[in-house]
Write a structure and sequence with these properties.
2 copies of one chain form a homodimer. Chain A has 335 residues and is an alpha/beta fold. Chain A has 13 helices and 7 strands. Chain A has helices spanning 2-7, 35-47, 78-93, 103-108, 119-128, 135-148, 164-175, 188-192, 195-199, 238-246, 262-267, 302-310, 317-320, and strands at 61-64, 179-187, 206-217, 222-232, 253-256, 276-281, 313-316. In chain A, helix 11 links the parallel strand 5 and strand 6. The interface between A and B is large, with 41 and 41 residues.
């Protein structure tokens, strides 16, 4: 990781690292003054003051899904978009790679043609682009893509399609002593490429799907190299399992947007401490996308039912967010 | 984790959480004024001041092995001692458990008889005591044992057999902006039982061997439950792999005492940044134990050769440490 950051410490995603706001400043200016915002502020206020709802600082753990929760995930997870373009490059450079599972289909077909692949096949192929690379090497390739690639609809850098209200929420939580984690189905080293500069979340607080890896001694240094095959899927029930093994504490705040987050949100609540569960509902086709129960990417069905049963906060992107994306590309933004 | 801490927040191991010493106070009073101490202080001084050797705060990652590095590991890893006693209790209460691999041998034989088992068999049996339990349930059982069990030679609580010079080193590093991690072959949830109170290391900075686990929904809450089988071994080459996946940064300080730490120490050094590698050499049979190349537990052979080749700091327990253990049981120490 360090090598990459040394190359370009300040011009990565261009997102400013959040700075705690003074107490008289609205901590969530991009959130409409509705029930969702009120529930968040009430929870944080209670958590940080003596009395009912107080949470000791060391237990202030907040976990966030990434795709669809911190940045856009349509029309396809950005990591998948990257992997598909990368596989096409790799196959063009070395046709023998067509023998790797799903690589030939991905190289030859357009987006519609890819629907003949299962999600598991696409996921495996997306992980395979990292094989034989160290995290630093892989992140350099991913970063080179993130710097230049543009979202097909918004024509902006993918890293600029982060949600401004969520950047404020992350900042607000940290200013109140919460440790913020990403817990995502995305591959962990890919997310670490932009999590520090994009969200202010350091690599050790990024939990994701992992690939097999081995320790190797090269000429001048030892390295950890990605190998073939998935090590552990950080989705659905895998999320609380990863949280228990990695963090070793039950979170008190969990934020997601799809059925893949259902178990993580459930896990953040006990009879002794309800916690705060937040579901981002994508209902804004004008500014972003509108999808839930029928969507292939980011389906929100069971978790939406559970939200009403369990008194979770459902955030309407349309009604609760004054803005969706940071208003203008910031300095050094690669656009 | 939280449930356990709520039960007895201040009477756990009784180790005070270290408080940074003012700069005019000797940060390492239990270390003799020899080469090892000098190398440590020179490295930290350079790391925290502008100039050659400076390390940005976010890259100040220090990883410590646990058994034989932070506390005693003889005559048998304490977790193994716990597991053997626990298996005997379990088999006495439910004889059908004799059918689990190695359980009958462990229940019937004395320490000498256990040598008929392989290390892998003992490790698997030690992990098996956690099956069907949440981390909180397991940690409560482990803590009940740690409160009452006594070391066979020193007749002290196992948690009092931590190394006073290492508590000072951990404290010194944290006071200088280093994030301290445990990276140990020990089972992760067992270590989290005492790492916060014993070493000031929070659960999320404890990396260890993990057991398979699943997410389950119980009557009033969802839980993560340990299952049969090892998930990932955090020893030898597994240590840098776990570091890369969990921390996502290359450490700049690595401290160990056995060949199981060899690759972790190698990984902490590159041509661009040598880092600081420390090996604790157990050469003090009077105050602790003397063992290295021939020992079954904590063998130090290849790593000792590499230490002289690669200019690692070798700490002689006999010559470099003025005291080994905290001088007297502290208040609330369970003795």
């Amino acid at each position: 990781m360090s090598a990459l950051f040394l190359i370009a410490p300040s011009v990565r995603t261009g997102q400013a690292v959040p700075i705690p706001a003074p107490p008289h400043v609205d901590p969530l200016p991009s959130w409409e003054r509705g029930q969702a915002r009120q529930a968040i502020i009430a929870f944080i206020s209670a958590a940080t003051r003596p009395g009912a709802g107080f949470i000791p600082v060391e237990e202030r753990v907040a976990v966030f899904d990434n795709d669809g929760t911190l940045w856009t995930e349509q029309p396809l997870y950005f990591q998948m978009t990257f992997a598909i373009e990368r596989i096409r490059q790799m196959v063009a450079a070395d046709p023998s790679l067509r023998n790797k599972p799903a690589f030939a289909t991905i190289a030859d077909k357009d987006a519609a043609g890819l629907s003949e692949l299962t999600e598991a096949e696409i996921t495996a192929a997306a992980l395979a682009v990292q094989e034989g690379l160290t995290a630093e090497e892989y992140q350099q390739i991913a970063w080179n893509w993130l710097k230049t690639a543009r979202h097909p609809r918004f024509k902006r850098a993918f890293t600029s399609l982060v949600y401004q209200p969520q950047l404020e929420l992350l900042n607000y939580l940290r200013a109140n002593g919460f440790k913020t984690y990403i817990v995502s189905g995305g591959e962990v080293q890919f997310m670490r490429t932009f999590a520090q500069d994009g969200y202010g979340i350091p690599p050790e607080q990024v939990i994701g799907t992992t690939q097999n890896a081995t320790f190797e001694t090269r000429t001048d240094r030892s390295v950890v190299v990605a190998q073939s095959g998935m090590r552990s899927l950080d989705d659905g029930p895998g999320k609380p399992v990863h949280i228990a093994l990695h963090i070793g504490r039950r979170p008190v705040i969990a934020v997601g947007n799809s059925d893949g987050d259902l178990q993580m949100l459930q896990y953040s609540s006990t009879p002794e401490r309800k916690g705060l569960q937040i579901l981002i509902h994508h209902d804004d086709a004008v500014r972003e996308y509108a999808y839930d129960r029928q969507s292939k990417v980011g389906r929100l069905d069971k978790a939406l039912d559970e939200a009403s049963r369990s008194d979770w906060v459902v955030v309407s992107m349309k009604a609760d967010w004054r803005v969706v994306y940071p208003p203008a590309p910031v300095k050094n933004q690669p656009e």
